[in-house]
Amino acid sequence: MRIGLLTDGGYPYATGESRLWCDRLVRGLPQHEFDLFALSRSADQEQQGWVRLPDRVGRVRTAPMWTHGEDALHPGRPRGVTGRLATGLGRSYGRRDRRRFTAHATALVGAVCSGTETGPEADGADAATASRLFTDGLYGLAELARERGGLPAALRSETTVRIVESACRAPGTGRTVHSATVPDYLAFAAELERALRPLSLDWYDEDGLGEVDLCHAASGGAAALPGLLAKRFFGVPLLVTEHGVPLRAHYLAAPEAELGAPVRALLANFHGLLASEVYRQAALITPGNTHVRRWQERFGADRDKLRTVYPGMEAERFGAVGDADDGGGPGTLVWIGRIEPAKDLIALLHAFAEVRRAEPDARLRIFGAPVQGSEGETYLAHCRALAAQLFPDEAADAHAEGDNPVTFEEIGGPEVPDLAEAYAAGGVVVLSSVVEGFPISLVEAMFCGRATVSTDVGAVVEIVGGTGLVVPPRNPRALADACVALLRDHERRARLGAAARARALELFTVEQNLTAFRGIYLDLVSHAPARWAPPGGPRGAAGPPRPFATPPEAHVRGDLLPEPVPAGARAARVPSWAVGAEGVCAGARGAGDGDA
Asked: Which of 67, 131, 454, 506 has the smallest C-beta neighbourhood within 10 Å, fewest atoms?
């Protein structure tokens, strides 16, 4: 079958959170053909290009979500077809189209500005009204964009700004939204145009999303929006996979200088309503863990549609570490990840100060990915300064060079050439984060057979099970006590490490992930309405139904249905291999003279 893989800021670009998972999925299911429909998130992502795509990727269409121009055509991609963003609703369009736009935009913006909660704690009638207005406006704008060539110009027009102003000042809006000013109206109109940009792409035709058998959105939000339209226009079933919670990221996003509190509140309302509609229309939702599943249920996902599928990871690269002893000594703690404030290395350093008091020979090795951006560099400098203050260089005598028990190292250096060597460098792996989704480093440590000490955030408890120690976040004393307990008990450390490896091999491998999606694809398409057209004809034309969009029979001339047998004609003889235990096969019963 043909799968339309929808991504947002990930595959097939060389950078992005979903690229590894999607690449394993495409390469691991060779019986299917994949068309990629990808949204890019930055100019840097575009410049770094794509990963090498396997032959089973048929077409690639891309569109930027970060540009400000009306046209998003990017020529010159290998084997790819880019998406064009039409200008939309210029002055040449008549009053009828303008009235349609105003009506649909008013409904959508009014639902967003109402601030109605979409979770179970919301009032049912108000939530239903907001949801209806939102979907009426969303699909009305989508149909208008498809008929008239896009909406960017209209969404950036003065008409949209006035609609936003009127909705923000309407009775019943929240205090934060009601306090919006003209700069907030302008900022939200610009953000709304960017969020609705997928409506104006030229992906919605018989040669685009209308040609696929199943849309698989690799994340919620903007990536799933083309899947909603493919279902509405062509009846294509939608599968949504979320390993993180995009909606949660909108709530926790740090305030930006150019976006005030009213704009952030409006964007949160918009993404909440969009997530609820995505969950409502999806044929199946596959959260990557229970933490994500709880958020999906809160925003209206039907429990009967939810099926947890853990992300698959390559266990082979860590196999040698799992079979070996502690490479860095049992007294070494290891931390691995991106160096950023959410990882709370400050609490880890304070906890290690307590560990050193109990175990003077203990060491802490911090392995970080290359730091990117000024925020990461500032945080790394702060951590280094704190480590130098807490742990002055120690020397045996006045002539020896000092040694610090805390080291900051980059993976890929001469001492630690790859990730597996980093996990092999110690006996206990520590996770000190205050915010996590599905921490990959924790699973990798389990593949390596390492005992772990983790903070209780995100999906940590679900990943670890009973194979590691879990402590409250932002609690250096509890973190230190757990680390000391494992450093002092070699047998317990080895037992937990072996149990962790067995659990990871059972739940988190690439094979189990591929097996799950192989069955999900077949199940969804088998229950979807047949969508087939005769060669050369449009879909929906008269003809016998077929289970997939382009079955092999469609490439053969002539009618392949069995010819009707004239009345009184002699039935065909039935060969002996077709005779069952109860006589001849069902298709030949009544023939009267079949061979037995």
From this structure: 506
Which amino acid does the sequence have at 545?
P
* Number of Cβ within a 10 Å radius of residue 291: 21
Confirm if 399 and 364 have CB atoms less than 8 A apart: no
Q: Determine the pLDDT at residue 124.
A: 64
d(CA 270, CA 262): 12
The DSSP symbol for 378 reads H
Output the average pLDDT for the chain: 82
- Distance of alpha carbon 516 from the chain centroid: 16
Here the tokens at position 90 are 């210029």
Percentage of the chain lying above the pLDDT 70 cut: 77
Residue 276 contacts residue 297 (beta carbons within 8 Å): no
Cβ pair 40, 16 in contact under 8 A: no
Cβ 4 vs Cβ 35: under 8 Å: yes
Q: How many CB atoms are located within 10 Å of the residue 492 CB? A: 13
Contacts of 245 (CB under 8 A, 6+ apart): 291, 292, 295, 437
Q: What is the DSSP string of 320-359?
A: HHHTS--SS-TTEEEEEE--SGGG-HHHHHHHHHHHHHH-
**What is the pLDDT averaged over residues 381-389?**
93
DSSP 583: B
* Average pLDDT of the segment spanning 403-430: 86
Higher per-residue confidence, 124 vs 596: 124
Q: What angle do CA 489, 491, 496 make, to 5 degrees?
A: 95
> How many angstroms separate the CA atoms of 346 and 53, rounded?
41
Let me know: does 113 contact 175? Beta carbons within 8 Å: no
Give residue for tokens 């970060």.
66
Listed residue (279, 269, 281, 270) closest to 299, CA to CA: 279
Structure tokens at 192: 């709304």
